[in-house]
Amino acid sequence: MAKVELRNYRKAQTPVRTLLRLFRYFKHCRLILISAVASIIVYTVATIASSYLMRPLVDLLENTVLPHSEVYAKYLALLIGLAGLYLLSAVTNYLLNRLMLECSTVIMRELRTELFAKMQRLPVSYFDENTNGSLMSYFTNDIEATNELLQHSITQMLISAISLVGTIAMMLVLSMKLFAIMVVLAGIVTVVVRITTRVSSRSYRAQQKNAATVNGFIEEMISGQRDIKVFTHEEKVMEDFSTINEALFTASTTATTITSIVGPILNNLSHIFYAITCAVGVVWLTGEGAGGILITFLQYIRNFATRVSQISEQFNSIMLALAGAERIFSVLDLPNETDEGTVTLERRGDEYDWVPQDGVPVPLRGDVRFHDVDFSYVEGKPVLQGLSLYAKPGQKIAFVGSTGAGKTTITNLINRFYDIQGGQITYDGIDVRSIKKDDLRRSLGIVLQDTHLFTGTVMENIRYGRLEASDEDCIRAAKIANAHYFISHLPQGYDTVLYSDGANLSQGQRQLLAIARAAVSEAPVLILDEATSSVDTRTEKLIERGLDGLMRGRTVFVIAHRLSTVRNADAILVLEKGKVIERGSHDDLLALKGKYYQLYTNMTELA
Q: How many CA atoms lie within 13 A of 384 on its CB side?
């Protein structure tokens, strides 16, 4: 089966395409964006105009014709106008930052929702191939970087770009000769920015990727801290962490170094061209008003250098943010879990029906059959080869065999966590690929070896098996699973809140809740994957008695390493290298003295 990997399905992305795609999310805050852009334009016009007022101020001071009183009056008026422009720029600067903050918050909400919804639609294989930490990095590092881009970087880039255009226009108005010097400066700056951008873009992508790797490793090591200490692998873990942490350090250092040298380079270039312009301007500019033109032009040179430096800095920040946005879009571009099913399964009271094309419901009996099934997780490494088996309605089928024989794989194929490469799996004679996946999975009650409990009350965790179940249904399911007694003795009974995957319960109690969750689903087919592996012998007996009532009239698949738990199965299937090598009852297989006999007698001897 082909793996679901980002490199296989990610669309070709470039920074420009990623940015344009990100801009589409502004549709969620159009009015806010229009107001922000208007504020940006007013702000830049006010700052450019305030610089231009230096020219009449200087010309006025050089004027020797007007009376002193008239000069002072005009001078005061210009100062008041300058103060008004500064006030206007301050107000609009606040508005644009406030508006962009609100707009970015709206977009982040939409992006998080879209990303989380996408995660729900991805196949199980994707989560098998990615650690929880690396998946969480999409919602932390990458979302935060994208938020920084929308909230600050784009705003500052727009301000700098519009100011730069306005500054160039004003410089052209003031002096074409002096502007020729700026053309040379712009050429040099362009070369510097292009070189640094090319290097920093690669570094920022590597930084985001390595950050996800570090997060994934940390999450995995924290989860396995008990095992690390048991086997005293602290030093080995530190060595492995140092390697990936060093890779993150190298990428981050390279990106930061490139970013940090741009500012000083551009700053020194601005000083050089400032001095050159001043020296040349004194010679080139003559006549009335030359002083005002030169001083104003020098002011615009300073503005020009500042804006170029800001653009360069923001460009690097944008590269970092776009690396995060690109990773998010790479997940959004992954293909959803396909569902070509057309047959629906409907719950009517305590029964399930399947609805054919003629629309007449047919009771779902729970007949499951495998017909020459071939399956492999990795191409060229088969797990099941020509597997055929059947479970008649109401039968209890047990799978036994060595680790890796394919026991759990069979149950994963029944509920279509994975799709087969050859053969057919039927459910009441219907190819499971023709049944809608959600309907199929709702009709299967599953208890896994690794129990996961959600943050919430005990009642809510049991109800997770069927959200519309009443409190009475949940309590009845708990009694079937023999969990009612210990739940009743919890501090708040069924209203006791569970945290950290049920850390305030024992492993056996968590398993009992998982069984109660399967019981409340009232599904016609049950899959028990090592359901009693984490409980003691006494609790196991209680569960078995509860399961006997739960399994009555239902088709049940049981995977168990304790062979004593499958002796009462209607049929025991012995698996070896993806094939059924023996099938029969407990007594029949013992009499056969084959593989099952060996497994059972070894177990007895160990016991």
A: 30
Paired residues of 447 in beta bridges: 528
**Mind listing the pLDDT tens digit for each residue in 207-243?**
777 887 887 788 777 766 656 765 667 788 888 888 8
CA distance 510 to 524: 23
User: How many domains, the chain?
Assistant: 2
> What are the residues whose beta carbons fall under 8 Å from the beta carbon of 366, sequence distance 6 or more?
391, 393, 394, 428, 524, 525, 554, 555
Query: Over the stretch 556-570, which tens digit does the pLDDT of each residue have?
Result: 888 876 676 677 888
Rounded Cα distance between 196 and 203, Å, is: 11
The CA-atom distances, in angstroms, between 346 and each of 356, 426, 442, 471, 475 are: 11, 17, 9, 22, 24
- State which residues form the domain around 529: 394-406+441-606
Query: pTM for this one?
Result: 0.71
Residue 483 sits at the vertex; the CA angle it makes with 480 and 487, to the nearest 5 degrees, is: 135
pLDDT of res. 494:
92
Count of alpha carbons within 13 Å of 377, Cβ hemisphere only? 14
Which parts of 122-175 fold into alpha helices (H)?
124-128, 132-137, 143-148, 154-174
How far apart are alpha carbons 509 and 505 in whole angstroms?
Answer: 6
Question: Strand order in 344-348's β-sheet?
Answer: 344-348, 351-355, 362-363
DSSP-based three-state secondary structure for 334: coil
Residue 270: give its domain's CATH number: 1.20.1560.10
